[in-house]
Amino acid sequence: MSPLPLFRRTLVVSAIALGVVAPVMAEERELLNSSYDIARELFATVNPAFKDHWEATHDDTLTIKQSHGGSSAQARAILQGLRADVVTYNQVTDVQVLADAGLVAKDWQQQLPNNASPYYSTTAFLVRKGNPLGIESWDDLAAEGVELVFPNPKTSGNGRYTYLAAWGAAERAFDGDEERVTTFMRDFLGNVKVFDTGGRGATTSFIERGIGDVLISFESEVNNIRQEYGSDDYEVIVPPVSILAEFPVAVVEENAERNDTLELARDYLEFLYAEDTQRLLAGFNYRVHDETVVAEFADQFPETELLKVEDVFGGWDVAMETHFASGGRLDQLQRR
Amino acid sequence: MSQRAAGSRLALPFPGRTQRVLPGFGLSLGISLTFVSLVLLLPLTGLVGQLAGLSLGEYWAIISEARVVASYAITLGAAAVAALVNAAFGLLLAWVLVRYDFPGKRALDALMDLPFALPTAVAGITLATLYSSNGWMGQALAPLGLEVAYTWVGIALAMAFTSIPFVVRTVQPILEDLPHEIDEAAMTLGARDGVAFRRVILPHLWPALVTGTGLAFVRSLGEFGAVIFIAGNMPYETEITSLMIFVKLQEYDYVGASAIASAVLATSLALLLAINLWQGRFIRRLHGGN
């Protein structure tokens, strides 16, 4: 490498350091969807369908970009300036953070049907072949010697749903007897073998590393795993009582306005509610609202009572504050 | 090897230049300081700035919470073990690489830089795969009653993996500068092998070895990617301090995260400073007579 004159080298270095990069003028339209970790395959299927749908009625070439990660980290990236046009998360709180910061409309949950959640799921179990421990419901999971794997509620929305589902089910089983609920939760958490930071990490621990008797994750995730890793080796158990896990979506209006994608972004989210898209979603083992599709997939989703965070815990704000914040219930339960 | 090759090229004086390779003390110092400010000081200032809203009491409450304190003990303990193991084996590796010729020496030498080049998450996943109860090593160790993955040992192992180059690469050049004749001289003067190593060679290596070990230790304190996959992350048992910072961020608690981060930072800085001061004194003492 021939050494550049120092002056020119300095210029180059400062140009890079200051981030003076000429803005790229796009001829085509672009949409950035900031999504949760395990939605890669889902949107890889939905996006081409939307592209066809949009281009059929508009004179654009559309590119949809996806960004995936833990949904709290994703929301943080947007707070810190990532210009995503829409968010599709697995945590109401992560959209709410954006609404509180003024990036998303205050009434975002009213802007689209079903609390702005085009599909939903619940928390279910994956057990090894033949269900040797006879796991049927939450109280089986606190028994001595049952080894559990689910993501850390401190770092994962998926893990928080699991925690709240177990708590809600116990509260129902013990008629709200707080002491018994606490004992149950202590045993339940004590049975955890590995706390991965996210849902996919927990899947890896359970499947690849062979750790634990039960993997607890979204119903959609455990069904997808079972399909992917062989339906003979694992069984899916949907407990009789579990929690409603909503997958909220919203337009990041401030960014969409700046990117001039407001109409596109809204159409994209509405598209998730269309019958054909709902069929795609159900194919990924998410529960949907469209009645025709619900009827078609009836055998795939066992009837189960779904507790709502709003009803049992008084909403996500309260649940976060009481259970997951520093010094909250979870910390107390894990204290020794 | 490439590092040293580049080093020697840099040291070659350009034709026509007699004194300094880079022109202008003012310009080069200015650029260096600007660079240091942008790359190092600015982010650190940002970190400290996050703490501005905290009272001393609140700060202390965050960094002295029982679970966080448990994570310090785990992190410091595992990092210390990793650093000491690396000190011993890193010294041996450096010795082998400098003093012996054997087939595959180049490959082994290049391999030493791998932990720098490999994304630490990859290292963590690989180690977890290897040492989990159904992995090769895990299966071999299980009959002995040894569990590595998802225990404290796994954390130390991951830390040792990512920080071994620090010891090897700091000791190696010093050992290369040490002429072979020096041990021969010691032996002709009647020193036995062990004595020659302990009293003649080791004193020369000591500052580099301590620096390398210290760097390895400090590096391990902050390790996240490699450790997180093999740690198991059980509260009070296998949670490292970096995870506590990550947890705070997940809660949108930037201030809490910065508080814990600042504690780690202060420890690391104090340690690095101590090593530097000690090294300065040691070298002065070593050459003190002259």
From TrEMBL, chain A:
What is the organism field in this record?
Halomonas pelophila
Tell me the protein's name.
Answer: Thiosulfate ABC transporter substrate-binding protein CysP
Q: Which UniProt keywords apply?
A: Periplasm, Signal, Transport
Report the gene name: cysP
Cellular location(s): Periplasm
Indicate the principal place this protein occupies in or around the cell. Answer: periplasm
| Family matches, as Pfam families | SBP_bac_11 (PF13531)
**Family according to the record:** Belongs to the prokaryotic sulfate-binding protein family.
Which Gene3D superfamilies does UniProt cross-reference here? Answer: Periplasmic binding protein-like II
TrEMBL record, chain B:
Pfam families recorded: BPD_transp_1
Q: How does it sit in the membrane?
A: Multi-pass membrane protein
Localization annotation = Cell membrane
Q: Which PROSITE patterns match?
A: ABC_TM1
User: Which residue intervals define the domain ABC transmembrane type-1 in the entry?
Assistant: 72-273
| Keywords tagged on the record | Membrane, Sulfate transport, Transmembrane, Transmembrane helix, Transport
Q: Which residues are listed as membrane-spanning?
A: 21-49, 69-98, 110-129, 149-168, 208-234, 254-278
Q: Which CDD domains match?
A: TM_PBP2
Record PANTHER family? SULFATE TRANSPORT SYSTEM PERMEASE PROTEIN, SULFATE TRANSPORT SYSTEM PERMEASE PROTEIN CYST
Biological role: Part of the ABC transporter complex (TC 3.A.1.6.1) involved in sulfate/thiosulfate import.
Quaternary structure note: The complex is composed of two ATP-binding proteins (CysA), two transmembrane proteins (CysT and CysW) and a solute-binding protein (CysP).
Membership in a protein family: Belongs to the binding-protein-dependent transport system permease family. CysTW subfamily.
Name of the featured protein: Sulfate transport system permease protein CysT
What organism is this sequence from?
Halomonas pelophila
Its gene is cysT
